[in-house]
Amino acid sequence: MTRSFLKNRTSYTSRWIVLLIDISISMQAFFLAYLIRFNFTLNFGQFDFVGNLPLVALTSLISIVIVGSFKGIVRHTGIKDAIQVFWAATLIMAILLVTSLIAKNYNLNNIFLIPVSIVFVHYLLNIVLLISSRFIFKYLFNRVVSNYKSPKNVLIYGAGDSGLLTYTTLSNSTQNKYKIVGFLDDSKLKIGKQFNRIKILNPDKIDDDYILKNNISEIIFSIQNINSYDLFEKVDRITQLPLTVKIVPPVQQWIDGDLNVSQITEVKIEDLLERTPIQINNPIIQKEFEGKVILVTGAAGSIGSEFANQISNYNYKHLILLDQAESVLYELEQTFKRNEVQNFSIELVDIRNKHRVKEIFKKYTINIVFHAAAYKHVPLMEKNPYEAVHVNILGTSNVMNQAVENGVDKFIMVSTDKAVNPTNVMGATKRVAEIYANYLNGFGKTKFVTTRFGNVLGSNGSVIPLFKKQIDAGGPVTVTHKSITRFFMTIPEACELVLEAGIMGNGGEIYVFDMGESVKIFELAKKMIHLSGYKYPEDIDIKISGLRPGEKLYEELLTNEENTIPTYHEKILIAKTEKIDYNKLKIEIEELMILDGLSTNEIVSKLKSIVPNYISNNSEFEKLDDKKVKVKKLKIG
Questions:
Q1: Per-residue pLDDT, 276
Q2: Is 506 helix (H, G, I), strand (E, B) or coil?
Q3: Percentage of the chain modeled with pLDDT above 90
Q4: What tens digit of pLDDT does each residue of 332-359 get?
Q5: Residue 458 above 70 pLDDT?
Q6: Average pLDDT score over the chain
C-alpha cells in the first residue's frame, strides 16, 4: 500500500512541477514581451509591469489547468502535446486580452491594464518557449538521463504517404532509436528529390558497398498498395544484402489510425504469399452468437483455439472448450483466465467416447457446435486407418448424433480440401464425415454446415514451422516434389470464414473459399531461405524427398461433378454436390464404424466403397483400387 501511495504521489508531483515550470516560463515570456515592446529598456512608463505579474500567473494557471497541457509526460512529448500547449497559450492570450480591454473601457486599476501589443507578443513567445522547452527537456532526457544508445541507421522503402508517416513515427520514437539515412522509391519522378533534407534513392543503386559504407542495419518496407508478388520481388533482392528487412503493416491494422513502432516487424512468409487476404466484417455474427451456448471441439488445436479466441470477443452466454489433449487444454484455460474471459468451461473429453459426449450435451443446453476435432496428418493416418476412422468418422458421428438428439441449432464442421477426390485415408474419412452430416441434415432441427479450405499457415504440422526448424538447423530443407502445390490461408482467416459460414448456412451446404492461386512449395522454401538471411543453394539447399504415402501433387476444392453457387460474399462459394443415396450410404457408414475385428485392408476397402472417387496414391492401398478407376490417378497426380 505504501509503495502504491508513493508511486501515485510521484506521478502527481511531477505534474505539479511541470505546471509550476509552465507558469514560470509564461511570466518570463511576459517580461520579455515588455522588454521587446519598450526597446529593451526597463522604463515601462505608466504601465504597471509588477502589478500585472499576479494576473499573468493566475491566468496561466487557469488556462493550463483547463487545457490539461501539464499532464503529459514531458520526456515523451509529441505533436499532440505541442497542440495542447498551443491551445493553453491561446487561452492565456484570450483571457489577458479580454481583461485588458475591459480595464481600459471601465478605467479599472492598472494591474488589469496590459497593452494589446504586449499581449500578442507574449502569446507568440509563450508558444515558442513552452513548446521548445518540452522538446529540449525530451532531448536532454534521452541523451543524458536515459541509457543512451547510438541510433540504428535505416532506409525506408517507399517515399509515399505511408513512408512519410513511418519516418515521422520513427523520428518521434523514444524507445527505439533510429536515424533515417534515406528513402528508396521506384518512381523516377521521386528519385533524387529530398524530404526533410533526406534524399530519395534508387533501389537499384543500393548494394553491399553502400550498406557497409553507411552502416545500414535495417530496411523498412512501407508501401501500402502493393500485391504480394511485387513485394516478394523487392524483398527477395533486398534480402541478399547484409541487413534486416522489416515491414509496416496495412493501415487498417494501425492503432486508432496511428502507426506504432512496435507494429513494424520483420517480414514473414505470410506477408509474401501470392494471394489477397480474405476480409470478413459481418455484424450479424454478433447477433447470431448473442445469448447462445457454443461448443468448440478440438479446442486445444491450432484451428479450435483460434475459434475459441475469436468467439470470446462476442456476447455469448457460455463457451465450452472441449478436447482430449490435457496439457494444451490447460494452457488455453490459463490464457483465457489471464485475459479475463468470462463464462467459459473446459471439458477434457475424447469424442470417441459416446457416453462422455452424451454427458456433455446433457450438462449444457448447447445452441451452436463448431467441430474442429479431427486427425489431420496425412502420412500418419495412412499408417493408422483404424484411428482415422475412429476419430474422424465414429467420433464425429457421436457429436453429430447428440447435436440432433438435443436440438442444437447449428453444427458447423471443419473439413478439408483433401476430402475432394481423396487419395489418402485422412481425406476419405473427412469426406465420409461430410456425407454423414448431409444425411443428418434432414432429421430434427439441427442445420449441418460444412466448410472446406486448404492448408493454414502456422498450424500444427504445416510446412512453415517445419521449414523454419530445418533452416535453423542449417538445412537442408526437404520438399516432397518440385512441382507440388498447396492452397494457403492464415489461421485467423480460416476461422473467420468458418464463423461466417455458420451464420450464412441454412443446412446441407458445403462451403468452399476462393483462396487465390495455389503456392508452389518449392518456391515457398526458397523464399523462406532468403528471408532467413541465407542464399539458396549456396548456404542452404533444398532436398527432394519424394511424395509421402497418400500425398497429392496438388489439392482441389471441388470434384469434377461439383460446381459452385455464389453467395453475398465474393470469396465464399457453395459447392453443388453430386446426388447421393444417403440411406444406402448410412448403412455402409454404420458398418464401417463397427471397427472391431476389421483388418486394415477391410477398413480401407469399406472407405473406398463409400467414397468411389477415393483412389490411393503412392500408398500400399493402391492394390485395393478397382482396375477400371486406376486410370483416373493420372488426372489426380
A1: 53
A2: coil
A3: 37
A4: 999 999 999 999 999 999 999 999 999 9
A5: no
A6: 83
- Give the separation between CA 553 and CA 231, rounded to whole angstroms: 27
556, 421 Cβ separation under 8 angstroms: yes
DSSP bridge partners of 452: 512
Provide the 8-state DSSP code for 250. Answer: P
Least confident range from 300-309, 546-555, 626-635: namely: 626-635
What is the separation, in whole angstroms, between the first and last Cα of the chain? Answer: 70
Handedness of CA 632, 635, 636, 637 (dihedral sign): positive
In sign, the C-alpha dihedral spanning 210, 213, 216, 222 is: negative
Torsion of CA 84, 87, 91, 97, to 10 degrees: 140
What is the CATH class of 152-267?
alpha beta
Give me the pLDDT at residue 272, please: 65
**pLDDT given at position 584:** 84
Measured N-to-C along each axis, helices 79-105 and 116-140 cross at an angle, to the nearest 10 degrees, of: 160
Annotated catalytic residues are: 418
Residue 248 backbone dihedrals phi, psi, to 5 degrees:
-90, 130
CB 377: neighbour CB atoms within 10 A?
14
- Give Dmax over CA atoms of the chain in angstroms: 116
Cα–Cα dist 301/248, whole Å: 30
Place of cell 515521422: 168
Q: Residue holding cell 558497398? A: 209
Question: 3-state SS of 561-626?
Answer: CCEEEECCCCCEEEEECCCCCHHHHHHHHHHHCCCCCCCHHHHHHHHHHHCCCCCCCCCHHHHHCC
The torsion region of residue 154 among left (phi > 0), alpha (psi -120 to 50) and beta comes to: beta
Residue 226 has pLDDT above 90, yes or no: no
> In the chain, which residues fall in CATH 3.40.50.720?
152-267, 284-624
- 27: amino acid identity, one letter: M
Whether a cis peptide bond, with omega within 30° of 0, leads into 537 is yes
**Secondary structure class of 430 (helix, strand, coil):** helix
Of the candidates 415, 461, 375, 412, the residue with the CA atom closest to the CA atom of residue 611: 415
Question: Residue 1: what pLDDT?
Answer: 39
pLDDT band at 252 (very low <50, low <70, confident <90, very high): low
Task: List all residues 6 or more positions away from 105 whose beta carbon is below 8 Å from its beta carbon.
Answer: none
Three-state secondary structure call for residue 362: helix
Name, in order, each residue with C-beta under 8 angstroms of 147's C-beta and a sequence gap of 6 or more. Answer: none
486 grid coordinates = 498447396
Domain covering 284-624, topology: Rossmann fold (3.40.50)
The string of pLDDT tens digits covering residues 473-524 is: 999 999 999 999 887 777 887 888 889 888 888 888 998 877 667 788 898 8
Distances in Å between the Cα of 333 and the Cα atoms of 308, 340, 374, 460 are: 11, 10, 20, 19
Of 350, 366, 363, 353, nearest to 404 by C-alpha is 366
Contacts of 320 (CB under 8 A, 6+ apart): 293, 294, 295, 296, 344, 345, 347, 360, 364, 366
Distance CA 331, CA 402 (A): 28
| Residues β-bridged to residue 138 | none
Residue 507: which of 416, 429, 440, 453 has the closest Cα?
Answer: 440
